[in-house]
Design brief:
17 helices, alpha/beta, Rossmann fold, 46% helix, binds 5-phosphoarabinonic acid, 2 domains, 11% strand, 5-stranded mixed β-sheet
Protein backbone atom coordinates (compact mmCIF):
# COMPACT_ATOMS: atom_id res chain seq x y z
CA UNK A 1 0.00 0.00 0.00
CA UNK A 2 1.36 3.44 -0.91
CA UNK A 3 2.31 5.95 1.76
CA UNK A 4 -0.34 8.55 2.50
CA UNK A 5 0.52 12.20 2.05
CA UNK A 6 -2.63 13.35 3.84
CA UNK A 7 -2.25 13.41 7.60
CA UNK A 8 -5.52 12.84 9.46
CA UNK A 9 -5.55 13.74 13.13
CA UNK A 10 -8.98 12.92 14.55
CA UNK A 11 -7.90 12.78 18.19
CA UNK A 12 -9.94 15.91 18.97
CA UNK A 13 -13.13 13.90 18.39
CA UNK A 14 -12.23 11.64 21.34
CA UNK A 15 -12.85 11.59 25.08
CA UNK A 16 -9.08 11.49 25.77
CA UNK A 17 -8.62 14.91 24.19
CA UNK A 18 -11.87 16.72 24.93
CA UNK A 19 -13.33 14.98 27.96
CA UNK A 20 -16.83 13.56 28.24
CA UNK A 21 -18.16 15.38 25.19
CA UNK A 22 -15.87 13.24 23.02
CA UNK A 23 -16.67 9.85 21.54
CA UNK A 24 -14.96 6.62 22.57
CA UNK A 25 -13.65 3.69 20.52
CA UNK A 26 -16.33 1.43 22.04
CA UNK A 27 -19.10 3.68 20.70
CA UNK A 28 -17.51 3.67 17.25
CA UNK A 29 -17.04 -0.10 17.31
CA UNK A 30 -20.68 -0.59 18.34
CA UNK A 31 -21.68 0.96 14.99
CA UNK A 32 -19.58 -1.53 13.03
CA UNK A 33 -22.41 -4.04 12.30
CA UNK A 34 -24.53 -1.20 10.85
CA UNK A 35 -21.88 -0.80 8.17
CA UNK A 36 -22.01 -4.42 6.96
CA UNK A 37 -24.38 -3.49 4.12
CA UNK A 38 -21.99 -0.74 3.03
CA UNK A 39 -19.04 -3.15 3.21
CA UNK A 40 -20.83 -5.34 0.66
CA UNK A 41 -21.64 -2.34 -1.56
CA UNK A 42 -18.02 -1.17 -1.46
CA UNK A 43 -16.88 -4.62 -2.59
CA UNK A 44 -19.42 -4.56 -5.45
CA UNK A 45 -18.51 -1.00 -6.44
CA UNK A 46 -14.83 -1.86 -6.58
CA UNK A 47 -15.38 -5.02 -8.62
CA UNK A 48 -18.05 -3.58 -10.90
CA UNK A 49 -17.45 -3.10 -14.62
CA UNK A 50 -19.82 -0.17 -14.47
CA UNK A 51 -18.58 3.22 -13.44
CA UNK A 52 -19.32 4.45 -9.90
CA UNK A 53 -17.69 7.16 -7.78
CA UNK A 54 -15.38 4.67 -6.03
CA UNK A 55 -13.87 3.05 -9.12
CA UNK A 56 -13.39 6.31 -11.05
CA UNK A 57 -9.61 6.36 -10.44
CA UNK A 58 -9.45 3.13 -12.49
CA UNK A 59 -12.28 3.71 -14.94
CA UNK A 60 -11.73 7.34 -15.98
CA UNK A 61 -9.97 7.57 -19.33
CA UNK A 62 -7.19 9.92 -18.28
CA UNK A 63 -5.28 9.56 -21.56
CA UNK A 64 -8.19 10.98 -23.55
CA UNK A 65 -8.74 13.80 -21.05
CA UNK A 66 -5.04 14.73 -21.21
CA UNK A 67 -5.05 14.51 -25.00
CA UNK A 68 -8.05 16.88 -25.31
CA UNK A 69 -6.61 19.11 -22.59
CA UNK A 70 -3.23 19.41 -24.38
CA UNK A 71 -4.99 20.42 -27.58
CA UNK A 72 -7.06 23.05 -25.76
CA UNK A 73 -3.98 24.43 -24.03
CA UNK A 74 -2.19 24.77 -27.38
CA UNK A 75 -5.16 26.34 -29.18
CA UNK A 76 -6.61 28.76 -26.62
CA UNK A 77 -5.45 31.38 -24.16
CA UNK A 78 -8.68 31.42 -22.16
CA UNK A 79 -11.35 28.93 -21.15
CA UNK A 80 -14.82 29.75 -19.91
CA UNK A 81 -16.71 27.05 -18.05
CA UNK A 82 -20.50 27.13 -17.80
CA UNK A 83 -21.96 24.73 -15.23
CA UNK A 84 -23.46 24.74 -11.75
CA UNK A 85 -23.31 22.61 -8.60
CA UNK A 86 -21.48 19.38 -9.27
CA UNK A 87 -20.82 20.49 -12.83
CA UNK A 88 -18.60 23.32 -11.62
CA UNK A 89 -17.49 23.07 -7.99
CA UNK A 90 -15.08 20.14 -8.35
CA UNK A 91 -13.34 21.55 -11.40
CA UNK A 92 -13.03 24.95 -9.77
CA UNK A 93 -11.65 23.38 -6.59
CA UNK A 94 -8.91 21.54 -8.48
CA UNK A 95 -8.08 24.49 -10.71
CA UNK A 96 -7.86 27.04 -7.93
CA UNK A 97 -6.17 24.76 -5.39
CA UNK A 98 -3.64 23.03 -7.62
CA UNK A 99 -3.63 24.97 -10.88
CA UNK A 100 -0.58 26.65 -12.29
CA UNK A 101 -0.19 30.20 -10.99
CA UNK A 102 0.43 31.52 -14.53
CA UNK A 103 -1.25 28.91 -16.76
CA UNK A 104 -0.91 29.02 -20.52
CA UNK A 105 -4.69 28.97 -20.64
CA UNK A 106 -6.69 30.85 -17.96
CA UNK A 107 -9.85 29.06 -16.88
CA UNK A 108 -12.79 31.05 -15.54
CA UNK A 109 -15.89 29.49 -14.00
CA UNK A 110 -19.37 30.94 -14.26
CA UNK A 111 -21.75 29.16 -11.91
CA UNK A 112 -24.32 31.89 -11.49
CA UNK A 113 -26.65 33.86 -13.68
CA UNK A 114 -26.34 37.32 -12.15
CA UNK A 115 -26.88 39.41 -15.28
CA UNK A 116 -24.30 41.97 -14.19
CA UNK A 117 -21.57 39.38 -13.81
CA UNK A 118 -22.50 37.68 -17.06
CA UNK A 119 -22.42 40.99 -18.92
CA UNK A 120 -18.62 40.73 -18.81
CA UNK A 121 -18.97 37.93 -21.35
CA UNK A 122 -19.81 40.61 -23.90
CA UNK A 123 -16.11 41.54 -23.81
CA UNK A 124 -14.77 38.03 -24.50
CA UNK A 125 -12.45 37.74 -27.48
CA UNK A 126 -13.73 34.45 -28.84
CA UNK A 127 -10.84 34.03 -31.27
CA UNK A 128 -8.63 32.69 -28.46
CA UNK A 129 -11.27 31.44 -26.03
CA UNK A 130 -12.67 27.97 -25.42
CA UNK A 131 -16.19 27.55 -24.03
CA UNK A 132 -16.95 24.42 -21.96
CA UNK A 133 -20.59 23.70 -21.20
CA UNK A 134 -21.10 21.04 -18.54
CA UNK A 135 -24.42 19.59 -17.45
CA UNK A 136 -25.14 15.97 -16.62
CA UNK A 137 -28.89 16.28 -17.22
CA UNK A 138 -28.49 18.80 -20.03
CA UNK A 139 -31.66 20.49 -18.85
CA UNK A 140 -30.34 22.82 -16.17
CA UNK A 141 -31.89 26.26 -16.65
CA UNK A 142 -28.85 28.24 -15.48
CA UNK A 143 -26.30 26.44 -17.65
CA UNK A 144 -28.51 26.45 -20.74
CA UNK A 145 -29.21 30.18 -20.30
CA UNK A 146 -25.52 30.99 -19.91
CA UNK A 147 -24.62 29.15 -23.11
CA UNK A 148 -27.62 30.24 -25.16
CA UNK A 149 -27.06 33.92 -24.36
CA UNK A 150 -23.43 33.89 -25.55
CA UNK A 151 -24.07 31.61 -28.53
CA UNK A 152 -25.22 34.31 -31.04
CA UNK A 153 -22.08 36.36 -30.41
CA UNK A 154 -19.86 33.28 -30.69
CA UNK A 155 -21.53 32.31 -33.98
CA UNK A 156 -21.09 35.80 -35.33
CA UNK A 157 -17.35 35.86 -34.57
CA UNK A 158 -16.46 32.24 -35.21
CA UNK A 159 -18.89 30.98 -37.84
CA UNK A 160 -20.29 27.44 -37.78
CA UNK A 161 -17.01 25.62 -38.19
CA UNK A 162 -15.10 27.84 -35.75
CA UNK A 163 -17.86 27.36 -33.20
CA UNK A 164 -17.39 23.59 -33.28
CA UNK A 165 -13.71 24.01 -32.46
CA UNK A 166 -14.37 26.47 -29.66
CA UNK A 167 -17.10 24.63 -27.76
CA UNK A 168 -16.80 21.50 -25.64
CA UNK A 169 -19.98 20.01 -24.24
CA UNK A 170 -20.00 17.42 -21.44
CA UNK A 171 -23.39 15.84 -20.88
CA UNK A 172 -24.95 12.44 -20.26
CA UNK A 173 -28.55 12.54 -21.29
CA UNK A 174 -29.27 12.14 -25.04
CA UNK A 175 -32.81 13.38 -24.37
CA UNK A 176 -31.55 16.50 -22.62
CA UNK A 177 -31.64 19.91 -24.28
CA UNK A 178 -27.85 20.38 -24.16
CA UNK A 179 -27.24 17.13 -26.03
CA UNK A 180 -29.76 18.11 -28.70
CA UNK A 181 -28.38 21.64 -29.03
CA UNK A 182 -24.85 20.22 -29.38
CA UNK A 183 -26.03 17.86 -32.10
CA UNK A 184 -27.76 20.66 -34.00
CA UNK A 185 -24.57 22.72 -33.81
CA UNK A 186 -22.49 19.77 -35.04
CA UNK A 187 -20.66 19.33 -31.71
CA UNK A 188 -19.95 15.79 -30.49
CA UNK A 189 -20.60 15.79 -26.69
CA UNK A 190 -18.07 14.21 -24.33
CA UNK A 191 -20.03 11.67 -22.26
CA UNK A 192 -20.68 12.54 -18.62
CA UNK A 193 -20.27 9.19 -16.83
CA UNK A 194 -23.22 7.82 -14.86
CA UNK A 195 -22.20 9.29 -11.48
CA UNK A 196 -24.00 12.13 -9.70
CA UNK A 197 -22.74 15.67 -10.29
CA UNK A 198 -21.29 16.11 -6.81
CA UNK A 199 -19.40 12.80 -7.15
CA UNK A 200 -18.08 13.66 -10.63
CA UNK A 201 -14.89 15.58 -9.87
CA UNK A 202 -12.72 12.58 -10.83
CA UNK A 203 -14.21 12.48 -14.35
CA UNK A 204 -13.78 14.76 -17.37
CA UNK A 205 -16.17 17.15 -15.58
CA UNK A 206 -13.53 18.02 -12.99
CA UNK A 207 -10.34 16.84 -14.65
CA UNK A 208 -10.53 18.48 -18.08
CA UNK A 209 -10.83 22.08 -16.82
CA UNK A 210 -8.25 21.18 -14.15
CA UNK A 211 -5.78 19.85 -16.72
CA UNK A 212 -6.18 23.03 -18.77
CA UNK A 213 -5.44 25.01 -15.58
CA UNK A 214 -2.15 23.12 -15.24
CA UNK A 215 -3.18 20.60 -12.57
CA UNK A 216 -1.31 17.30 -12.24
CA UNK A 217 -4.48 15.26 -12.78
CA UNK A 218 -2.60 11.93 -12.71
CA UNK A 219 -1.35 12.82 -9.24
CA UNK A 220 -4.91 13.56 -8.10
CA UNK A 221 -6.09 10.20 -9.43
CA UNK A 222 -3.21 8.28 -7.82
CA UNK A 223 -4.05 9.81 -4.44
CA UNK A 224 -7.76 9.06 -4.89
CA UNK A 225 -6.99 5.46 -5.88
CA UNK A 226 -4.82 4.95 -2.80
CA UNK A 227 -7.56 6.36 -0.53
CA UNK A 228 -10.23 4.19 -2.21
CA UNK A 229 -8.05 1.22 -1.33
CA UNK A 230 -7.76 2.30 2.32
CA UNK A 231 -11.51 2.88 2.50
CA UNK A 232 -12.16 -0.74 1.51
CA UNK A 233 -10.70 -1.94 4.83
CA UNK A 234 -13.32 -3.79 6.90
CA UNK A 235 -12.08 -2.84 10.37
CA UNK A 236 -13.96 0.30 11.42
CA UNK A 237 -10.99 1.64 13.35
CA UNK A 238 -8.53 1.10 10.48
CA UNK A 239 -10.74 2.42 7.68
CA UNK A 240 -10.35 6.25 7.73
CA UNK A 241 -13.78 6.91 6.20
CA UNK A 242 -15.59 4.45 8.50
CA UNK A 243 -13.76 5.76 11.52
CA UNK A 244 -14.20 9.48 10.79
CA UNK A 245 -17.70 9.05 9.40
CA UNK A 246 -18.82 7.08 12.47
CA UNK A 247 -17.32 9.69 14.82
CA UNK A 248 -19.13 12.51 13.00
CA UNK A 249 -22.38 10.55 13.05
CA UNK A 250 -22.05 10.01 16.81
CA UNK A 251 -21.41 13.71 17.37
CA UNK A 252 -24.47 14.52 15.25
CA UNK A 253 -26.52 12.15 17.42
CA UNK A 254 -25.31 14.17 20.44
CA UNK A 255 -26.72 17.31 18.80
CA UNK A 256 -23.61 18.52 16.95
CA UNK A 257 -25.20 18.81 13.55
CA UNK A 258 -23.10 21.68 12.18
CA UNK A 259 -19.88 20.69 10.45
CA UNK A 260 -17.46 23.61 10.29
CA UNK A 261 -14.60 23.38 7.79
CA UNK A 262 -11.81 25.80 8.57
CA UNK A 263 -8.88 25.93 6.15
CA UNK A 264 -5.70 27.69 7.28
CA UNK A 265 -4.56 28.22 3.68
CA UNK A 266 -6.23 30.56 1.22
CA UNK A 267 -5.71 28.17 -1.67
CA UNK A 268 -7.70 25.44 0.15
CA UNK A 269 -10.83 27.56 0.48
CA UNK A 270 -12.30 26.09 -2.69
CA UNK A 271 -12.05 22.60 -1.17
CA UNK A 272 -14.58 23.76 1.40
CA UNK A 273 -16.84 25.15 -1.32
CA UNK A 274 -16.88 21.75 -3.01
CA UNK A 275 -17.33 19.89 0.28
CA UNK A 276 -20.34 22.06 1.27
CA UNK A 277 -22.32 20.81 -1.70
CA UNK A 278 -21.24 17.21 -1.25
CA UNK A 279 -22.21 17.16 2.42
CA UNK A 280 -25.43 19.23 2.19
CA UNK A 281 -26.99 17.75 -0.92
CA UNK A 282 -26.03 14.17 -0.04
CA UNK A 283 -27.12 14.16 3.60
CA UNK A 284 -30.05 16.56 3.81
CA UNK A 285 -32.82 13.97 3.40
CA UNK A 286 -35.91 12.51 5.00
CA UNK A 287 -35.31 8.95 6.22
CA UNK A 288 -37.72 5.99 6.07
CA UNK A 289 -39.20 6.98 9.44
CA UNK A 290 -39.93 10.50 8.16
CA UNK A 291 -37.11 12.08 10.20
CA UNK A 292 -35.28 15.06 8.70
CA UNK A 293 -31.62 14.08 8.60
CA UNK A 294 -28.43 15.85 7.64
CA UNK A 295 -25.64 18.00 9.01
CA UNK A 296 -25.17 21.63 8.02
CA UNK A 297 -21.79 22.40 6.48
CA UNK A 298 -20.30 25.74 7.45
CA UNK A 299 -17.31 27.51 6.03
CA UNK A 300 -14.89 29.44 8.26
CA UNK A 301 -11.51 30.77 7.24
CA UNK A 302 -8.41 30.62 9.37
CA UNK A 303 -7.26 33.06 10.63
CA UNK A 304 -9.81 35.61 9.38
CA UNK A 305 -12.85 34.06 11.04
CA UNK A 306 -11.10 33.80 14.40
CA UNK A 307 -12.17 37.45 14.55
CA UNK A 308 -15.70 36.68 13.40
CA UNK A 309 -16.92 33.15 14.26
CA UNK A 310 -14.57 31.79 16.93
CA UNK A 311 -16.38 33.28 19.92
CA UNK A 312 -19.53 31.45 18.80
CA UNK A 313 -17.59 28.23 18.23
CA UNK A 314 -16.12 28.43 21.76
CA UNK A 315 -18.93 29.73 23.97
CA UNK A 316 -22.01 29.36 21.77
CA UNK A 317 -24.20 26.25 21.54
CA UNK A 318 -22.33 22.94 21.57
CA UNK A 319 -23.75 22.06 18.15
CA UNK A 320 -20.61 21.96 15.97
CA UNK A 321 -17.70 19.79 15.00
CA UNK A 322 -14.71 21.48 13.40
CA UNK A 323 -12.37 20.22 10.70
CA UNK A 324 -9.17 22.20 10.24
CA UNK A 325 -7.18 21.90 7.03
CA UNK A 326 -3.64 23.20 7.01
CA UNK A 327 -0.37 23.05 5.17
CA UNK A 328 2.36 22.32 7.74
CA UNK A 329 4.97 23.58 5.27
CA UNK A 330 3.64 27.13 5.54
CA UNK A 331 5.55 27.49 8.80
CA UNK A 332 8.75 28.19 6.87
CA UNK A 333 7.11 30.63 4.49
CA UNK A 334 6.52 34.33 4.43
CA UNK A 335 8.45 37.37 5.45
CA UNK A 336 10.02 37.60 8.88
CA UNK A 337 8.40 40.19 11.09
CA UNK A 338 11.15 42.76 11.78
CA UNK A 339 12.65 43.28 15.25
CA UNK A 340 11.90 46.97 14.95
CA UNK A 341 9.36 48.19 17.52
CA UNK A 342 9.88 45.05 19.62
CA UNK A 343 9.84 47.18 22.75
CA UNK A 344 6.06 47.45 22.23
CA UNK A 345 4.27 44.64 24.12
CA UNK A 346 2.00 43.77 21.14
CA UNK A 347 4.96 43.53 18.75
CA UNK A 348 7.39 41.69 21.09
CA UNK A 349 5.90 38.16 20.63
CA UNK A 350 5.74 38.62 16.85
CA UNK A 351 9.22 40.06 16.23
CA UNK A 352 11.59 37.67 14.47
CA UNK A 353 8.92 35.13 13.47
CA UNK A 354 7.80 34.36 9.92
CA UNK A 355 4.19 34.97 8.91
CA UNK A 356 3.93 31.18 8.43
CA UNK A 357 5.00 30.59 12.05
CA UNK A 358 2.28 32.98 13.21
CA UNK A 359 -0.27 31.23 10.94
CA UNK A 360 0.52 27.76 12.36
CA UNK A 361 0.67 29.04 15.95
CA UNK A 362 -2.79 30.57 15.57
CA UNK A 363 -4.14 27.29 14.23
CA UNK A 364 -2.66 25.36 17.17
CA UNK A 365 -4.03 27.90 19.64
CA UNK A 366 -7.53 27.83 18.10
CA UNK A 367 -7.56 24.03 18.13
CA UNK A 368 -6.41 23.83 21.71
CA UNK A 369 -8.91 26.40 22.92
CA UNK A 370 -11.69 24.38 21.31
CA UNK A 371 -10.42 21.13 22.86
CA UNK A 372 -10.16 22.69 26.31
CA UNK A 373 -13.87 23.53 26.11
CA UNK A 374 -14.74 20.01 24.97
CA UNK A 375 -15.52 21.12 21.41
CA UNK A 376 -14.80 18.28 18.91
CA UNK A 377 -12.27 18.95 16.19
CA UNK A 378 -9.91 17.19 13.82
CA UNK A 379 -7.12 18.32 11.51
CA UNK A 380 -6.15 17.39 7.96
CA UNK A 381 -2.58 18.24 7.02
CA UNK A 382 -1.34 18.34 3.46
CA UNK A 383 1.62 20.01 1.85
CA UNK A 384 0.81 22.89 -0.42
CA UNK A 385 -0.33 22.13 -3.94
CA UNK A 386 0.13 18.38 -3.47
CA UNK A 387 -2.13 16.80 -6.12
CA UNK A 388 -1.79 13.33 -4.59
CA UNK A 389 -2.91 14.52 -1.13
CA UNK A 390 -5.86 16.44 -2.60
CA UNK A 391 -6.87 13.26 -4.46
CA UNK A 392 -6.77 11.38 -1.15
CA UNK A 393 -8.83 14.10 0.54
CA UNK A 394 -11.47 14.08 -2.22
CA UNK A 395 -11.98 10.33 -1.98
CA UNK A 396 -11.96 10.39 1.83
CA UNK A 397 -14.63 13.11 2.00
CA UNK A 398 -16.79 11.33 -0.58
CA UNK A 399 -16.52 8.05 1.33
CA UNK A 400 -17.19 9.72 4.70
CA UNK A 401 -20.36 11.19 3.20
CA UNK A 402 -21.48 7.75 2.09
CA UNK A 403 -20.70 6.28 5.53
CA UNK A 404 -22.69 8.96 7.39
CA UNK A 405 -25.59 8.50 4.93
CA UNK A 406 -25.54 4.75 5.59
CA UNK A 407 -25.68 5.31 9.35
CA UNK A 408 -28.49 7.85 8.94
CA UNK A 409 -30.41 5.44 6.70
CA UNK A 410 -30.62 7.75 3.67
CA UNK A 411 -29.53 7.68 0.03
CA UNK A 412 -26.55 10.02 -0.54
CA UNK A 413 -26.82 9.93 -4.33
CA UNK A 414 -30.20 11.56 -4.96
CA UNK A 415 -31.62 15.07 -4.35
CA UNK A 416 -35.41 14.61 -4.56
CA UNK A 417 -36.46 17.92 -2.99
CA UNK A 418 -34.68 20.42 -5.25
CA UNK A 419 -36.85 19.46 -8.25
CA UNK A 420 -39.82 21.31 -6.75
CA UNK A 421 -38.07 24.68 -6.92
CA UNK A 422 -36.97 24.02 -10.52
CA UNK A 423 -40.60 23.32 -11.52
CA UNK A 424 -41.75 26.51 -9.76
CA UNK A 425 -39.06 28.59 -11.51
CA UNK A 426 -40.38 27.43 -14.87
CA UNK A 427 -43.93 28.29 -13.76
CA UNK A 428 -42.97 31.82 -12.64
CA UNK A 429 -41.09 32.40 -15.89
CA UNK A 430 -44.16 31.33 -17.85
CA UNK A 431 -46.31 33.69 -15.78
CA UNK A 432 -44.09 36.70 -16.49
CA UNK A 433 -45.34 39.09 -19.10
CA UNK A 434 -42.57 39.65 -21.58
CA UNK A 435 -42.37 43.32 -22.44
CA UNK A 436 -40.72 44.38 -25.68
CA UNK A 437 -39.21 47.85 -25.61
O1 LIG B 1 -24.84 17.00 -7.49
C1 LIG B 1 -25.75 17.16 -8.27
O2 LIG B 1 -26.27 16.21 -8.88
C2 LIG B 1 -26.29 18.54 -8.58
O3 LIG B 1 -25.77 19.51 -7.75
C3 LIG B 1 -25.96 18.92 -10.02
O4 LIG B 1 -24.58 18.84 -10.21
C4 LIG B 1 -26.46 20.30 -10.39
O5 LIG B 1 -27.82 20.43 -10.10
C5 LIG B 1 -26.25 20.56 -11.88
O6 LIG B 1 -26.91 19.59 -12.62
P1 LIG B 1 -26.53 19.28 -14.10
O7 LIG B 1 -25.12 18.78 -14.13
O8 LIG B 1 -27.52 18.27 -14.57
O9 LIG B 1 -26.62 20.58 -14.87
Amino acid sequence: MSISRLSINSSGFYKDAIGDSGVGNEEIQALSPQLDGLRKKIKQWRESDEVNFLNLPDKTDLDTIEHIGRKCTRMFKHTIVFGIGGSSLGAEMLSRTLGHRAPRNRVKFYDNIDPRTLSELDEVVWADTLCMVISKSGNTAETLSQFLTVLPRMERYLGDIGLREHVIVITENPDGALYKIAQQLGIEPIPHPPVGGRFSVLTAVGLLPAYISGVDVSGVMEGARAMAERCAENDILENPAFHNGAAQYLHAEKGRTISVFMPYADNLRLVVNWYRQLWAESLGKVDAQGRHRGMTPMENHGVTDQHSQLQLMLDGPDDKIVTFIANPGVRHEGRRIPMRFQELPAVAPLAGHTLGELFISELKATRETLSRRGRPNRTFGLYDRDAYAIGELIMLLEMETVVVAELMGIDPFDQPAVEESKVLTRKYLADLVHVEF
